[in-house]
Amino acid sequence: MYAFIWRKLPFGLAGKLTGSVLLVAAAVALLWYVAFPWAEPLLPFDDVQVTQDSGVPGAPGGGDAVTGETPAGDEHDLPYDTDRNNSAPPSPDR
Which residues face 51 on adjacent strands? Predict the structure, then answer.
């Protein structure tokens, strides 16, 4: 297909290069301004629900929405140092 398009473009090498760039730009513009806006409502990018984990594997969240604030008594010990970058990973206890 590309060889067919290349052969059909007029005006020698310079015309073929210019025509190729224009065809690519037209395809990108068509996708950007027509195809993607048409398809956006059909895609689930904005359908996001973040809920608290119930603690039961396989169960739906069903909890309150996550606000970013840590409730009192819900602190967790992290297995790495948060004060320094690139610290060595902890060794497993076996």
Answer: 65
The single-letter code of the amino acid at 74 is D
With cut-offs at 50, 70 and 90, classify the pLDDT of residue 22: very high
User: By the 8 A CB rule, do 6 and 18 touch?
Assistant: no
Most confident of 6-15, 20-29, 46-55, 60-69: 20-29
Torsion over CA: 10, 12, 15, 17 (sign) = positive
Q: What is the pTM of this model?
A: 0.46
Helix spans in 31-88 (H): 36-39
Nearest to 53 by CA among 42, 64, 68: 64
Q: 71: which 2 tokens?
A: 């409730």
